Structures are given as C-alpha cells and as structure tokens.
Amino acid sequence: MLSGKVAVVTGSGRGIGAATARLLAAQRARVVVNDIRPEVAEDVASSIRNQGGTAISVAGNVMEPEFPMKILSKANSEFGSVDILVNNAGFTWDGMIQNMTDEQWDVIINVHVSSPFRMIRAAAPYMRDLGKKELQAGEAPKDRSIVNISSTSGLHGNVGQANYAAAKMGVIGLTKTVAKEWGPFGVRCNAVAYGWISTRLTRSTEQGEVVEGLNQTVTQGIPPHDPEKLRQAVPLARIGTDEEAAGGVMMLVSPWASYITGHTLEVTGGFGI
C-alpha cells in the first residue's frame, strides 16, 4: 500500500513508535527509525530489514533544535524526499498543578508541541515545497501525510497531567493549522488521540520504566490500577496493543485517507465517549 513512500517516525525505538515503523515497512514504505539510544533504534531498523523491509536508524533527541534537519536530511539522502512524517516521540512527567515545576511544564510542552512544530517546519522543503513545485508544473501534487500523536488527556484533561494535557491539546491545534496551510500543496495533517494503550506511559510505575536524556530520572507509568475499573471505563473492556495503536496511523497515511485532513482519530476502545 505504501510502496515507494519514505516515512520518518520519531520515537520509534519502542512501543507505539516501533509498531508503527514495522507496520509502515510491512506496507513497503522505506522507514527511518529514531530513538535517543542508537542501539535501540538500530534494533528496530534491523528487525525490519530481517523481515525483508527497508529501514535505517537515526539516533537523536527530538528536543534538540538541530535534530529535525539532521533526521530529515538523512532520510532524503538515503531514500529521497519524505512522504510520511509521524511525530510520535514523547513521555510524561506528571505532578499536581500546585507542585509542578517550570521545568516539568517546559520539558513536556517542548517534546509534545515544540518538537513536532520544528519537525514539520524542517519538513517544508521535502513536503510543502515539492507539492508547490508540482502544482506550478501543472501536475496534481503527490499525497504527503503528517500524523501527530495526541491523547485523551488532551481531549478531556487528566488529574496530575496539566502539562501533558495542555501539550496534547496544543498539538491538535498545530495539526489543524498545518492542514489549512499546507493542504493546497497536497500535504495532509492529522492527529491520533490514544486512550489506554499498553506502553511504558500506562504500565504500572512498579515496573521501573524511566526516561533518559534529562537532567534527572523521570519515572514513567501510573500507579497500580484495578482491572475491573478499567473494564468499566473502556467499552471494549481491555487495554489496546501497540499494533492496534499503529493501525490508526496506518489508516491516516494510507491512500484510502487521501481526502482526510485536520482530523483527530480517537483510538481508545471507546474510552472517553
């Protein structure tokens, strides 16, 4: 379905990002895998190649201002101009409002809003500008697609996540604006809002998942939860898998979504309806 397409997926060394990279590659996209840890990114890229797909890894921190140009330039030199950009990288740093520090706020806004903005801005020569040239040549612009990752926390708010909720709502505003500005040049921009997906952000804090690359250790996850309460909150009565989460991205970047832009797809099992 994606034969000939070039896809960049940030934060794709694990979880939803890794599942997304593998799914896009299975549909014959040439994929650029990213993680802050080189060996983690390369493990995913290697697994794709072992399955007959095409992938390279580009390690780096999406919050570093120069990183977007680095990864997009590498994608272009290896595979050609980028057709698909998935802004997936992110993590949580929770705290009640009265206890939340400026650093907590700034870091989460950076990784979930500012970093996608910089990635999209850096992608302009490879996506928007090429579409403009195609139009000027009297051709229909090629279908190019951006997907930003949001959350039900952004749609509904969540206790202990003022920073994360604000960021995940903010990226929806960014998504709609890109859709309006770049739509005339054939670039679609959508968001996926995830609910309860089994990742390090939703697993129990007892598992000891942490974020790397910060000045301090930030534990990921949530306090141990009651499975029965989960079943009551989610109409499908279960947690979603990484692969199911990746399916939402695949839907939006596929040719079948060629007239869908500015949309937020809820992949939640019905949570929040």
UniProtKB/TrEMBL annotation:
Gene3D superfamilies per UniProt: NAD(P)-binding Rossmann-like Domain
Principal EC category: oxidoreductase
Molecular function terms from GO: 3-oxoacyl-[acyl-carrier-protein] reductase (NADPH) activity
Ketoreductase domain: residues covered: 5-185
SMART domains for this protein: PKS_KR
UniProt record, GO biological process: monocarboxylic acid metabolic process
Pfam families listed in its UniProt record: adh_short
Top-level taxon of origin: Eukaryota
InterPro entries for the chain: KR_dom, NAD(P)-bd_dom_sf, Sc_DH/Rdtase_CS, SDR, SDR_fam
Reaction catalysed by this enzyme: a (3R)-hydroxyacyl-[ACP] + NADP(+) = a 3-oxoacyl-[ACP] + NADPH + H(+)
EC number: 1.1.1.100
UniProt record similarity statement: Belongs to the short-chain dehydrogenases/reductases (SDR) family.
Protein name: 3-oxoacyl-[acyl-carrier-protein] reductase
Originating species: Guillardia theta (strain CCMP2712)
Lineage of source species: Eukaryota, Cryptophyceae, Pyrenomonadales, Geminigeraceae, Guillardia
